[in-house]
C-alpha cells in the first residue's frame, strides 16, 4: 500500500525546493540587480509560505543570514565590527501580539517599546574612527559589506566629524533614502532620456550608492536617517533607544521625528494605526512600522538569530490594490533589447493616482499567474512607479479572454527574438533596432565605454533625427556631415570640432571599453575587461565557442551563450565590420604593466586634497597594489593627507615608509611632487 503521508511529505519537499529557487532569484534581483520583479508584499508571501513549511517540517530548517547585496562590483569589501542583521516582519496583528508576548515571556517582565516608521531605503553602517568618518559599508550579507565611503560623503546629513562627546570609535546604523519628490524627478528624467525607470525609491537609492561617478551621486541628493548602533568603542551611557536618539541629535545626526514610546499591546496597536494614517505626511516612502524594545540592556539579553534581532519586528502595511479590466498588451523594447510586456488597463484610481498601465514583468510571470487579455485583474501599487498586476479574478473571466502569446519577432524591427536557457527575459539582439538605437548610442559614448565627451542624449536625438546615425558605427562617419552640422541651431564650429575630436580619440579606447559599449547582454564593465584580457583582438573573441568562453573568469554558461548569440547575429556582424572599416582599434588591451607599487600594501590616512579616497584606492589597485585598512607589519607604505589619525603614530613605531599625498602621486606617475 502506498504511504500517503510519505507522498505528502515528498510533495511538500519539492514545493519547498521550488519556493527556495524563486526566493533566491528574487533576492538577486532585489539586493544585487536593484530590479525587483515582484512587490515586497509578494516576496513576503513567498517567505511566509516557506516558513510555514519549515514549521511543519523543522528538520528541513537551515540557518539563514539576511539577503545579500554583494556581487561583482568595483567597490572593496569590509567586515562589519558587529553583524548587521535584517528585521523579521509580519502583516498580522496576531503575529505582532505574539512577538510582544514572546519578548516579555523571555525576559519575565513587562517592558516598554519604541515605534518608528519603517523607511523603504538602503541600510548603511557608518564607521567612525577618532570621530572621523572612516568607512561607509552596505549591509552586504550582514557580516561583510561593500565600502561606498566616497559616495556616502556626498550626503549632507552625515557628519564627517563627530563632536567631542561622541565615542572615538562607533558604528552608526541607518537608512539611505530618496524623498518621494526627488525620486519622481529623477525617474521623470530617466523617462525623458528614454532610459529604464526604477521601480521604487529604494532601488534608485541602492543603484545610486554603487555609481562610480561621485558627482552624479551628489546630484541625486540622497538622504540619511539613523536608527541604531553596532560597535561602540568605549563606555557611553545609552540605556534606552530614546536616549541613543537624543545623543544622535546632539551629534547633528537626523533621527525619526515620529518615534514614539508604547507600553502595552493595545497602545502599540493604536500607534500602528496612527502611523498608517500619517504615511502621506512623510517626505520619504514607508511600508510599515518598526517596533523595538526600548531598553538596550534587554536588547542584549534577547539577542538575535542568524538573520534577525529578537528584540525588534517590522509590522508592514499591505499595499493598496484595485480591480480593473486588462484591455490590451503592448511590448516595450529596452536598451539591451529586453522585451517587456505592459498591460493597458481601463483607468482606475489607486493610491492617489489614476492608473492606466501596469507592468507584466516577463512572460513566465504571465504564465504563472495565467493572465489573459480582457481579464478582470488586481492591480497593486506599493511604492512602485509602474503598478503591477498581482492576480486574476478567474471567477469573472469571460469567454472572450485571450491568451497572451510570446512574440517571435521584435515588435519594432522584425528581427528574431532570443531567449537564453535559464533566463526569463526574451531579447532582440539587433544592434540597429530603432527603439534601442538612441539608447545604445548614448551607452556606447558613455564614460566607461568609448568616453565620447559631449555626445549626450540631446545631441544624439538631433543626430538621429537628421538621419546621420543609423547604428553606433555611424558615429565615426559624422565628420562627413560637418558642414551641415555646424549650421544646425545650437551648434558652432568649435562645439562640433571638439566633439569630432573626441570621436576620433575614441578609436583608440581599450578593447574592454569597446566590448562594454556594444551592449552585449550580461556583459558589464568588469566582465568586458576580463574578456579583453583573455583575447588578442575583437575578431579572435568573436570566434570563441561557448566552451572556450566559459574558461574565462566570471563567464558562466548563460553569459557564454549570450556572447556567442550576439556575435553570430548577422546584423551585429555588419555593424562590427563597419566599426573596423572606420578605424576602430580592436586589439588594444588595457593590461597593467609592472609598477613599483605592484604587490605592495598601502594604507591611507587623513584628508587627501587632490584625490578622493576612492580615486586613490582605484589608482593603487590599477598599479597592482592593495589598500589596507589598518597599520600592520605587512603594511608597505602609509600615505598621509592632512590631519592624519593615530595610523601615523603606529607607522612610525613600526618603521613603515611614510609618503605625503604629493609623494604618492609622484611615485604613481600621476604628477611630480611640489617642490618647496
Describe this entry's structure for a reader.
With 676 residues, the chain is an alpha+beta fold. It has five domains: 4-60, Helix hairpin bin (Helix Hairpins, Orthogonal Bundle), CATH 1.10.287.610; 77-316, D-amino Acid Aminotransferase, Chain A, domain 1, CATH 3.30.470.30; 321-403, Nucleic acid-binding proteins (OB fold (Dihydrolipoamide Acetyltransferase, E2P), Beta Barrel); 434-581, Orthogonal Bundle (DNA polymerase, domain 1); 601-668, BRCT domain (Rossmann fold), CATH 3.40.50.10190. Helices cover 36% and strands 20% of the residues. It contains 24 helices and 24 strands. The strands form seven sheets. Strands 2-11-10-3-9 form a five-stranded mixed β-sheet. A hairpin with a 2-residue loop joins β4 (122-129) and β5 (132-138). α16 packs across α17. The longest helix is centred in the N-terminal third of the chain and has 29 residues, at 4-32. It starts with a helix and ends in an 8-residue tail after the last helix.
Layout of SSEs?
Elements: H1 4-32, H2 40-56, E1 77-79, E2 89-90, H3 93-107, E3 113-119, E4 122-129, E5 132-138, E6 144-146, H4 149-152, E7 169-177, H5 180-192, H6 201-209, H7 214-219, E8 223-232, H8 241-250, E9 260-262, H9 265-278, E10 286-293, H10 296-302, E11 312-316, E12 320-333, E13 339-350, E14 353-359, H11 363-369, E15 372-373, E16 376-381, E17 388-392, E18 402-403, E19 417-418, E20 427-428, H12 434-444, H13 457-465, H14 482-485, H15 493-506, H16 511-517, H17 525-533, H18 538-542, H19 546-549, H20 557-568, H21 570-581, E21 601-605, H22 613-622, E22 626-628, E23 637-640, H23 647-654, E24 657-660, H24 661-668
Parallel strand pairs: 2-11, 21-22, 21-23, 23-24
Antiparallel strand pairs: 1-6, 3-9, 3-10, 4-5, 4-7, 7-8, 10-11, 12-13, 12-16, 13-14, 15-18, 16-17, 19-20
Helix pairs in contact: 1-2, 12-13, 16-17
